[in-house]
Structure formats: C-alpha cells, structure tokens
Amino acid sequence: MFLATGAGLAVGAGAVAWPLVASMAPDSATIAAGAPIDVDLSPITDGQIINVFWRGKLIFVRKLTEKEVGDMKGVPQGQLIEPAAFDSRVKKGHDQWLVVYGNCTHLGCVPIGHQGNFEGWACPCHGSQFDAVGRVRRGPAPINLPIPPYAFQTDAKIRIGEEGGKAAA
Q1: CA 9-12-17 angle, 5° bins
Q2: Which pLDDT does position 139 carry in this prediction?
Q3: How many Å separate Cα 146 from the centre of its chain?
Q4: What is the helix (H) or strand (E) element at residue 150, kind and residue range?
C-alpha cells in the first residue's frame, strides 16, 4: 500500500510540475524576436536612411555620401561631447555605411534624419543634435547613438544581431 501511494504521488507531482516548467520556456515568437535579421543594402542610395527593427528596437541604416565621409573624418575630437573617431563608428572597408540605434540617448525620442546643424539627426523633443555618424554634437543627450552588433555578410548585405559570427546576447 505504501509503495502504490508513493508511486501515485510521484506520478501526480510529475504531472503537475511538467506544465509549470514548460510554461517558463519562451515561445517560438519570443525566440524569433531576438534572432538576427538580414538587411539588403543594395536598394539604399547615397544619403538615404532606412529604418529597421531588431528585438523591438529601432535601427537606422544610413549610406553616407563621399562628402559626408570626408567631413566626418575631419571633425576634431575636441568638438565632440563624447569623443569617438570616425573609424570607431563604421566597419573597416565599409566607410559609407552607418548602423546605429534610432533613439536619442537623452530620453529615447526618435531623432529626425538630415536635420540640425551637423547634417545628421536632430531630436525634436529636447534639441539634441547628432552628426552624420551618430556622434552627439549638442546636448542634452550625454552620449553618441549606440551601435548595435552587426556584421557584413557581403558588400550588399548586413546581419544585425550578430558580430564576428556570434549571435548577440
């Protein structure tokens, strides 16, 4: 009798615990939301900015013109609120492509492209201005637009959410 009761309790506990444990695992939509995304760069023209979403966050992908690349390389570090060299904002060999998160680093508003005094973005909420490679030039934003993890798959395709063959955490 004790053996049958113990076995019944073990089976019952397992039957109750299994759905509880299974409910803690993320569903397939949640897993897919964090997956890397591929972006085709071929239709993007010089100076154009496109918006994509990765993990529910806005990402700006901008194709810089030759003039913008030259101008941004020549900006003295002393003029920047958060100094960052041009080369630290783009991938080597792909100087014309900028990929940054699309929210102002002050309070999270969405800056408007090709606005402000620095040919980049201007935040309509509180007046922060960023240059063409997302460096903050006028506050109250305290830091540059962050760069998400991304890697070039080909010259015309990037994968956001993966860097160096490893998926972002």
Answers
A1: 120
A2: 86
A3: 7
A4: strand 150-154
pLDDT along the chain (169 residues), means of 10: 81 79 66 80 95 94 95 92 94 95 93 91 93 93 95 94 69
Task: Look at residue 165 in the predicted model and tell me its pLDDT.
Answer: 62
Residues with Cβ within 8 Å of 17's Cβ and at least 6 positions away in sequence, in order, are none
115 and 149 Cβ atoms separated by less than 8 Å: no
CB burial of 17-33 (b: ≥16 within 10 Å; e: otherwise) equals eeeeeeeeeeeeeeeee
Report the alpha-carbon distance of residue 43 to residue 8 in Å, rounded: 64
For the CA atoms of 60, 65, 67, 68, the dihedral, rounded to the nearest 10 degrees, stands at 10
Residue type, 79: Q
Mapping DSSP to helix (H, G, I), strand (E, B) and coil, where does residue 112 land?
Answer: strand
Q: How many CA atoms lie within 13 A of 51 on its CB side?
A: 9
**CA dihedral of residues 61, 67, 68, 69 (deg, nearest 10):** 80
114 catalytically annotated: no
CB-based contact 118:112 (threshold 8 Å): no
